[in-house]
C-alpha cells in the first residue's frame, strides 16, 4: 500500500479537501485504485451532533456514519463509497486503547485496505487528509516578532503518529503533500497594478512541519496568481523541496479545474516518483473532467432555484461558480457549507441540463407573518426571491424555528405549479401544508414542533431515542420500493423497482393517516420494505412536486447527478418531459456529463457495500446493504 498525506499550513480553509480529492482523481486517471481517509482532531466521535455553524453539513455514508463534509468531496470526485472508519477522530481513538499513536497507525493500515470502489482487493494508494493547520506563525504582544507555532494543539497526537508512520512504511511508500498559502499583496503607496508574492508564511509553515518530524515531498501553493519560476526557486531553496515539486493552486472558475491544474503541472509524475510507481501507472486520462469543467464555464442560460431553510446565505465567491436560478429556503443564514452536498447536487444537475445555476437563499423566518410586522423590508425581499425563482427547494433540518416559513414556501409552490423538491424535513413540511390547506386540518403538525397536536401527521419513529441525540437516528442506506410505477420519481430513476438512498431522520409520516392523504390527492409513490414507512411523495397533477424522506444529495456525482435533483432542474427549465422520454441508454454521455445510471438491482453505483466491523459503533445488519442499526 502506498500513502499520500495531505497537510495544511499558515491558515485554515485553503482547500485541503479539494486538493486531496483532486490528487485522488489524477492518480485514478493514471490507472491506480484510490481510497481516502480524513483525520479530524476533534474530541467528538463523529460530526453528528456538531453545529452546522461551526462545522458545516454532516455528510451521511451508506453504513450510517455521520462524517466530515470532506468525505463527501472524496466520494463525489472519486466515485467511491466510504465507511465510517474512513473518518478518524480523536474521540474514536480515545475510546479504543491508551497507546494513541499506535492506535492511529493501526487504524490507518486497517482501513486503507478496505475496498471502496466495488472491486475485490485493496486499493493501490490511500490519500490521507490531516485536518487542522500546521506551522502557523503567531506574534508576541511586546515586539511583534514572529514565533513559530506547532499549529492546532489537538492535532499533535496525529502529527506524531504520522511521523512514526512515515518511518514505519519506509521510503517509496509515503508521500507528503503540504498545502500552504502564498499571499499576493498590493504594494503600499505604489501603483495598484504592482503586487508582491510573499513566500515567508510558507517557509515558516514548512519549518514547523519539519520540526514536528514530517518532511514535505511536494508543496501545493494556494495563491491568487500563478507562481513564476523565481518564486518557485525561492521556495525550493528555503523549504528544501525541488522546484519541479512545487505546484500552484491558483484561483479557477470552478473546482473541476483543480485536477487539471495538477495534471498540467505534472503533479502526478512527482507523486509517482516518490512512491516508486512510475513503471506501473499510465499518463492520466482526464478528458471527461476537461469536458465537464469547460462546459460549466461556458454555460450562460440561467435556471433559478429558491432554497428555503435556516442555514441560508452564500458568499459572492461561491456564486461565481453557481449560476441557475433556484430558491433555497432555510434558517441557518451565512454558511453555505451547511448545505454543501445540496449545492453540489444542484450544480451536477444543472450542468447536465446545460443550464447555469443561480441559487436564491431565502431565510424561512423572513417569509412568516411576524416578520411582515417587525421587518417588512426583509419580508418583502424574501417573497420577491421566492416568486422570482424557477424552482423551490426545502432541504433537511431540525427544530421548529422557521417552520412556518417553509410551510408557506411549499404552499406557494403547490398552488402556483412551481417545481418543488422537499428533502427529509422538506417532505414532512409538504405533508403538513397539504393537510392544513387541502384537507382543512388546521391543527395538523409534526410532534417535533407540537407534541400535543390533535392531528399528528408526522410522528416520532417508534425505534428512536428522545434522550440520546448522537447516533440514534435512522441512518445510512435504506431501500425504497416504488408502489406507483408510472410516477415521475420512478421514471427518473430509470424505471427501477427500488432504489437505495441514505437517510438521517427521527420523524416520519404518520402511517395511520396515509389513506386519508391519498384520498385527498397526495400520492405516496415510494415506501420502505414494510410498506408502512413513507419515503417519496408526489402530486400527480403538478409539473414537479416531489418530497423524499431520504437525502439524495449524498449520492450525487459530477458525472452522474442525483435523479431527483435532475428532475427539479429539468422541470425548472422546461426539459423534464424530454428527459423522461429519453431511453436510459441515450442519456449518457453528453459532452462528458452523465445522467443517472441505475443498475438492474436499483443501485446507482452498481455495487453493494459490505461493511467491515468497526472498533466503535459496530452494529450492522447482515443484509449486505451497509445499514447501521
UniProtKB/TrEMBL annotation:
Alphabetical GO biological process terms: 'de novo' CTP biosynthetic process; pyrimidine nucleobase biosynthetic process
Any matching Pfam family: GATase
InterPro entries associated with the record: Class_I_gatase-like, CTP_synthase, CTP_synthase_N, GATASE, GATase1_CTP_Synthase, P-loop_NTPase
Metabolic or biological pathway, per its Swiss-Prot or TrEMBL entry: Pyrimidine metabolism; CTP biosynthesis via de novo pathway; CTP from UDP: step 2/2
Residue stretches making up the CTP synthase N-terminal domain: 2-277
Organism of derivation: Cocos nucifera
EC numbers on record: 6.3.4.2
Domain Glutamine amidotransferase: 336-569
Family in the record: Belongs to the CTP synthase family.
UniProt key word S-adenosyl-L-methionine: no
A GO molecular function held by the record: ATP binding
Stated name of the protein: CTP synthase
This protein's UniProt keywords: ATP-binding, Glutamine amidotransferase, Ligase, Nucleotide-binding, Pyrimidine biosynthesis
Broad class of enzyme this protein falls into: ligase
Reaction(s) the record says it catalyses: UTP + L-glutamine + ATP + H2O = CTP + L-glutamate + ADP + phosphate + 2 H(+)
Record function comment: Catalyzes the ATP-dependent amination of UTP to CTP with either L-glutamine or ammonia as the source of nitrogen.
Amino acid at each position: 500500500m502506498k500513502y499520500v498525506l495531505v497537510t495544511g499550513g499558515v491558515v485554515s480553509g485553503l482547500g485541503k479537501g479539494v486538493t486531496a480529492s483532486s490528487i485522488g482523481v489524477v492518480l485514478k486517471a493514471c490507472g491506480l485504485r484510490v481510497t481516502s481517509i480524513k483525520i479530524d482532531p476533534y474530541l467528538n466521535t463523529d460530526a453528528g451532533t456538531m453545529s452546522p455553524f461551526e462545522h458545516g453539513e454532516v455528510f451521511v455514508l451508506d453504513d450510517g456514519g455521520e462524517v466530515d463534509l470532506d468525505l463527501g468531496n472524496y466520494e463525489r470526485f472519486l466515485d467511491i463509497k466510504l465507511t465510517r472508519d474512513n473518518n478518524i477522530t480523536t474521540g474514536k481513538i480515545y475510546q479504543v486503547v491508551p497507546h494513541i499513536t499506535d492506535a492511529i497507525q493501526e487504524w490507518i493500515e486497517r482501513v486503507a485496505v478496505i475496498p471502496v470502489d466495488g472491486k475485490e482487493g485493496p486499493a493501490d494508494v490511500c490519500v490521507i487528509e490531516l485536518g487542522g493547520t500546521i506551522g502557523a506563525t503567531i506574534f508576541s504582544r511586546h515586539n511583534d516578532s514572529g514565533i513559530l507555532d506547532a499549529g492546532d494543539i489537538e492535532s499533535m497526537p496525529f502529527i506524531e503518529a504520522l511521523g512514526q508512520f512515515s518511518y514505519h512504511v519506509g521510503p517509496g511508500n509515503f508521500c507528503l503533500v503540504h498545502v500552504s498559502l502564498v499571499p499576493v499583496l498590493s504594494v503600499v503607496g505604489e501603483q495598484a497594478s504592482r503586487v508582491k508574492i510573499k513566500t515567508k508564511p510558507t517557509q515558516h509553515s514548512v519549518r514547523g512541519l519539519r520540526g514536528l518530524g514530517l518532511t514535505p515531498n511536494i508543496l501545493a501553493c494556494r495563491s491568487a496568481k500563478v507562481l513564476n519560476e523565481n518564486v518557485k526557486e525561492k521556495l525550493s531553496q528555503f523549504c528544501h523541496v525541488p522546484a519541479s515539486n512545487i505546484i500552484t493552486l491558483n484561483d479557477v472558475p470552478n473546482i473541476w479545474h483543480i485536477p487539471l491544474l495538477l495534471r498540467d503541472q505534472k503533479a502526478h509524475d512527482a507523486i509517482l516518483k516518490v512512491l516508486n510507481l512510475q513503471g506501473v501507472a499510465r499518463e492520466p486520462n482526464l478528458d471527461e473532467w476537461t469536458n465537464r469543467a469547460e462546459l460549466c464555464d461556458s454555460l450562460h442560460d440561467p435556471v433559478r432555484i429558491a432554497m428555503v431553510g435556516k442555514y441560508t446565505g452564500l458568499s459572492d465567491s461561491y456564486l461565481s461558480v453557481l449560476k441557475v436560478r433556484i430558491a433555497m429556503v432555510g434558517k441557518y443564514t451565512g454558511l453555505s457549507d451547511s448545505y454543501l452536498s445540496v449545492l453540489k447536487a444542484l450544480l451536477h444537475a444543472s450542468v447536465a441540463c446545460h443550464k447555469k445555476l443561480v441559487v436564491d437563499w431565502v431565510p424561512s423566518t423572513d417569509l412568516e407573518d411576524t416578520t411582515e410586522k417587525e421587518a417588512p423590508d426583509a419580508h418583502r425581499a424574501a417573497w420577491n426571491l421566492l416568486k422570482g425563482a424557477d424552482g423551490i427547494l426545502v432541504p433537511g433540518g431540525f427544530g421548529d424555528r422557521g417552520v412556518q416559513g417553509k410551510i408557506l414556501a411549499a404552499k406557494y409552490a403547490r398552488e402556483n405549479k412551481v417545481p418543488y423538491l422537499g428533502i427529509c424535513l422538506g417532505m414532512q413540511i409538504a405533508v403538513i401544508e397539504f393537510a392544513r390547506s387541502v384537507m382543512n386540518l388546521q391543527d395538523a403538525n409534526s410532534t417535533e414542533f407540537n407534541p400535543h397536536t390533535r392531528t399528528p401527521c408526522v410522528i416520532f419513529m417508534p425505534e428512536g431515542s428522545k434522550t440520546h441525540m448522537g447516533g440514534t437516528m435512522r441512518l445510512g442506506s435504506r431501500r425504497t420500493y416504488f408502489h406507483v410505477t408510472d410516477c415521475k420519481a420512478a421514471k427518473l430513476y430509470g424505471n427501477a423497482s427500488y432504489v437505495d438512498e441514505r437517510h438521517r431522520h427521527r420523524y416520519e409520516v404518520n402511517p395511520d393517516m396515509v389513506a386519508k392523504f391519498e384520498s385527498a390527492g397526495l400520492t405516496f409513490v415510494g415506501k420502505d420494505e414494510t410498506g408502512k414507512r413513507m419515503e417519496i411523495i408526489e402530486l400527480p397533477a403538478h409539473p414537479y412536486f416531489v418530497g423524499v424522506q431520504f437525502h439524495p444529495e449524498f449520492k450525487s456525482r459530477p458525472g452522474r447527478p442525483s435523479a431527483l435533483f435532475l428532475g427539479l432542474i429539468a422541470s425548472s427549465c422546461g426539459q423534464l418531459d424530454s428527459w423522461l422520454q429519453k431511453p436510459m441508454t441515450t442519456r449518457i454521455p453528453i459532452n462528458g456529463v452523465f445522467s443517472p445510471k441505475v443498475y438492474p438491482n436499483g443501485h446507482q453505483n452498481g455495487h453493494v457495500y459490505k461493511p467491515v466491523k468497526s472498533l466503535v459503533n459496530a452494529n450492522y445488519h447482515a443484509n449486505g446493504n451497509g445499514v447501521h442499526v
